[in-house]
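User: What would this chain look like folded?
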Amino acid sequence: MVKKSLHNRIYFDEIVERISHLSENSPKKWGKMNVSQMMKHCDLILQIPLKKVEIPKINIFLQYVGIFTKVEMQIFNNGIPHNMPTFQKVIVNFECDFEKAKQDLLEKLNEYWYAYQNNNLPEKHNLFGKMEEKDWGFLEYKHLNHHLKQFNV
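Assistant: Here's the prediction, encoded as structure tokens.
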């Protein structure tokens, strides 16, 4: 069972290639977002480890759920369920320009790679708790993969 990570250049480049196959008319399999909104959402999620977006602290019960989810995903290498709730700060329910959203997402991916290469990823996530480098790479890949599958790429 291969555990793909955004920290492996092969899988990083795979994500970039899949993004290049998106079009304004890419059909979705589930969810409320269109393809432009999805790319903006993924951009915002990448801004969390870049320390540009801070998600709010949550209660202790939800923290335990988040930590358990992180561990479960790593043990079973499973994906993210469809229509999962997310933090208000990263919900995109407004119109986005397709080309700008794509360009911004690709730029954030490159910023993320630079932060990873320079050991500049946070040691904590307000939902997933303590984060090691491998946790960021695994979870960021899983998130991007989830949304690219949503749009058939």
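The two ends are 21 Å apart (CA to CA). If you want, I can go into more detail on any region.
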